[in-house]
Amino acid sequence: MIEKPGIGRPLAHVVLVLGVLVVAFPIYYTFIASTQSLTTILRPPLPLTPGDQIAANYGEALFGGIGRIGGVAVTTLLFNTLVMALGIALGKIFISILSAFAVVFFRFPLRMVFFWLIFVTLMLPVEVRILPTYKVMVDLGMIDTYAGLILPLIASATATLLFRQFFMTIPSELVEAARIDGAGPLRFLRDILLPLSKTNIAALFVILFIYGWTQYLWPLLVTNDNQMNTIVIALKKMVSFADADTPWHMVMVTSILAILPPVLVVVLMQRWFVRGLVESEK
Amino acid sequence: MAKIELKDVRKVYHGGVEAVKGVSLSVEDGAFVVLVGPSGCGKSTLLRMVAGLESISSGTIAIGDRVVNELEPAERDIAMVFQNYALYPHMTVRKNLEYGLKNRKMASGEIARRVDEAAKMLEIGALLDRRPGQLSGGQRQRVAMGRALVREPAAFLFDEPLSNLDAKLRVQMRAEIRRLQRRLKTTSLYVTHDQLEAMTLADTLVVLNAGRIEQAGSPMEVYERPASLFVATFIGSPAMNLLPLGAGGIAGLTAPDGLLSGAGPAKTLGIRPEHMRLADGEAPRPGEMRFDLTVTGVEVVGAESFVYGTLPEGGPEVAVRVAGYSHVEPGTRLAAAADPAYLHRFDRETGRRI
Predict the structure, then answer these.
(1) What was the ipTM of the complex prediction?
(2) Which CDD domains match (chain B) (predicted)?
């Protein structure tokens, strides 16, 4: 910490406050817009205080359904997105723990080849392999399914690498002590490795949940049915080229509702998140 | 309770490095055998092979009457204490002790009984609900011992268990391990590089060098009759003084007739510092060896001091033990004497004792 008397501190605070305002104001303005009627929004300037349509707007969005996206309620969108985000986050963690476990603790032929194969996929983002992936999903009949939304995004080289690094810090004596104590590989994974990885898993969960929640390109391709849309895709569909055609108040409500869950996850898991990134408890 | 029998055990790593080159060793039921040697001598590898953590390239290892070559560590009825304790950091002490027993599907009443008994024996009862991170090194060591005790195994294996403790605790734990082992009469195999630890703990001392047994025997036997130059210098501190015997004797050393001559292979003589004394100003006693030394340094340990000096003409350095405090100045020339009865003779070519 810099503790210098004089102008330094107040100046720093001013800069920080300005920064906060720059970040927070658009979100605040979105919230304001979500509490106004459509006509108010379309007739600038937009007031800086909440309007009186808050209950009506949120009620309609959550329980009524939004016309432009086929009358689907935001609750459905939230549910879809939650399933996808959880599926991706948990799936990625599950797969990467298992693959890191295999690569670190077992000696099998071509072990390093497999590790490098996983590693190399880091260089292939979803966009590069999107056509073949789409074809596979169509052939498997997974268009408009949760499985189709989740499965192609589950394999994660980054998470595998992260767990590999963590597993490699576990002293070999601990593994040996467990072997002498009669713990087979899976029991070792369950009783020793997973409890020790708790903070890592939590930190990764936060990152991956947000990654899953904000997915755009893949859900756009793989869902056609309005009932299967994620909240991000629905937002995109709500916005029309013609300004008057777009239910801006609903867009704003949906935006606010789309932001809330990731923020909640970060706030609730912040302590774990920081510990997972900082701590190297063994 | 069981005997451990190693027959011509070898370990060859991938790439052809031979860490253990044919070791045969029989550990009697209830014996405390210490494997000692410099780092890289294969002692830990040997222990880990007995534990089942390292595969056996050839030869057999039997615990009790069972050949255990192909058995998993958990099936070998052994318990091991590791150098860095290897306690499960996320479990309480009690859970650490219970874990191996639970995996064996032991009845919970029996588990509780054994944990209580071990806790009492090691005086860790108050620590049972803490985690390893909240314990001091000595306490962790006790818990690691406890984890071995509750198993009530056929044999204890110790892999340098005291190396991470400070000197005072090490002495204390050493005595405790000895006491526990005497009481439980469990066959124990103990690996250390510390010759003092080896001397004080062992029923049988096994000195390893470069993957082979140099000598096995009771500690005093090994100390008094080292079988090779390696053992002679490894056991004892400061090390035994070695004097390479040339054709014309050794410069600066006068010895009774016939002592330094003698046919046969080139020899190296050895004599321990405590079998020498400073004899300055004394008339030579008959039958004694006399050394003409130039003092190079003095080490005062407290109860005793070691005077180091070199023989003339670039001869070897020798250490002489002196009781109490010695205040010889470096550079002084003085005489030292020794009784030839304590002289060890080694074949310089093979390093073996003659």
Answers:
(1) 0.84
(2) ABC_MalK_N
